[in-house]
Amino acid sequence: MSSRTSPTESLLVFSDVHLGSDLNDSGPSVARSTLIDADLAAMLAHYRAVAPPADRWRLVIAGDFVDFVGMSIDPPEGDVLATEPTPAERAFGLGGAEDHVRLKLRRAASRHPDVFAELAAFVSQGNAVTFISGNHDLEMYWSAVQEDFHALLTTGEATREEVAERVEFEPWFFHRAGLVYIEHGHQFDPFCATPFVFAPLSPTDPRRVLQSLSDTLLRYIVRRTPGMKEYGHENRGLTSYVSWGLGLGARGTARLFKRFFDAVVMLREIARAYDGPNGELVRDEHERRFADHARRKGLDEARLRDALALHAPPIGRTPRGVLASVMLDRLSVFVVMVVAIVAVASLRTQLGGWAIHATIGLLLAWTFLHVRLSRGRPDVDPATVMSARASDLAKLFPASFVVMGHTHVPTTKPLGGATYINLGSWAEEEPDPGEDQAKAYRAARTHLVVHAADGQHEAHLYAWKSGVGPCVLDALVHPLREPVADVRAAS
Which of 15, 167, 462, 474 registers the highest number of CB atoms within 10 A of its CB? Predict the structure, then answer.
């Protein structure tokens, strides 16, 4: 479609919906809030009814729309899968193979019919949608999964071809020159980043999408351990986890240790595989897709590589990083030092005065190693890094607004000539029975409206209030970065 005939667009942006996060065929899970779907569907219906300042709306979903990682789905009885499930997938649910993901998408759509129905109505009315991949829905990489999305959003009022033209998938970011740059933000989180954004495949089996270190721990440990939540880990240290684990009792502690052991073994195998033939295959596929993406979008490859260089190195990329990520290096030091100190205490009669010196030496060595290993583990909360990188991105891809999600915490921050915006989330759990309601996690239900009008760029960050509608949290204005009065659909 040429720039002369492309419709102008006003942008509606949100992220981190995590549809399907409470689907668990192998046991109980933390229930998703029943209010979220109703509020999200109402918000989409509201903007269907509101005429955009431009020709049409473009909804940009900035990652983690469907929680392919978090859900645990068993294949329906009698179904034959092209990709045979691994033992881990039989125990914890289907994984990231293309045919597995298609089943998971169907289950998510069945679980959240109101959201998909409103999204289909939004598209059938002539509006457009861009899905940006997040760390929980990297599986949108597969072409068959994208086609299934098109089918789900096709209604009697829009043909499959019309839907395919209006609904697109971005593996990394969305950019409208001068106005806005949007990505999920997980690539600045070493626990969630993938080494190859254009080919997020596992080096142990390229038929499957790679799970980040954080998502592996979520899938195999957090969602399987009673009382353990997905959030709140940024404030936990080694002592906190050890005491928490012991509180599970002997059997619970043993099960937790087994889950950690299995996850770490799996992660170390993945890290080692990057140096093998499949690792080379994944790198080659990334480079091929990188060049193709730059050509199709008309982007300078050097600028794209500069942006890739801003990403955090995935901590699970090396076996050493895997151990540091789950603090097994510090736990090993803890166990060795406790055993050594107990041994010295038991030999104090034979050692005499040397027992005190040996104990002091062990405590000093323990302190030194603990501090050194602690500094080698990055911060669990990537919010600071994300806002810092936003300034660099605004220069590489000129934009008044740099927008991300991932942290689930809405915020705005001036960058000097631009503004960083975090979108918050639409992911909310029902509180556990007896849990303090004040401590239960509540989604921000935030979204962003962005457009160019009257010689300036405008962005309004809203919170959706049930029964009320959008309520302004922040209004941001920047002069036009380019001498154009409207935003075209073509980047």
Answer: 15
User: Three-state SS for 259?
Assistant: helix
Q: Where are the beta strands (DSSP E) in 146-203?
A: 167-170, 173-176, 178-183, 201-202
The pair of structure tokens assigned to 379 is 């911060």
- Measured between its terminal Cα atoms, the distance across the chain in Å is 11
Contact 401, 179 (CB under 8 A): yes
Q: Is 479 helix (H, G, I), strand (E, B) or coil?
A: strand
pLDDT in tens, 210-252: 877 777 777 777 666 655 555 544 455 545 555 656 666 677 6
| The token pair that represents 262 in the structure block | 């299995």
Angle between helices 98-111 and 143-152 (to 10 degrees): 20
For β-strands 56-61 and 9-14, DSSP reports them as parallel
Q: Where are the domains of the chain?
A: 6-189+382-491, 202-325, 328-375
Q: What is the DSSP letter of 421?
A: E
**Cβ atoms < 10 Å from Cβ of 472:** 10
What is the spatial distance between Cα 159 and Cα 374, in angstroms, rounded to a whole number? 56
Q: Which two tokens stand for residue 340?
A: 């050594």
CB atoms within 10 A of CB 7: 16
Tell me how far apart the alpha carbons of residues 47 and 50 are, in angstroms, rounded to a whole number.
Answer: 5
What is the CATH class of 6-189+382-491? alpha beta
DSSP string, 259-307: HHHHHHHHHHHHHHHTTSHHHHHHHHHHHHHHHHHHHHHT--HHHHHHH
Cut 0.85: pTM above it: no
pLDDT above 60 for 94: yes
* Residue 22 structure tokens: 């409470």
Q: Pinpoint the alpha helices (H) of 71-193.
A: 87-92, 98-111, 113-124, 143-152, 160-166
> CA 253 to CA 230: how far, in whole Å?
19
Q: At 11, give phi and psi (nearest 5°).
A: -105, 130
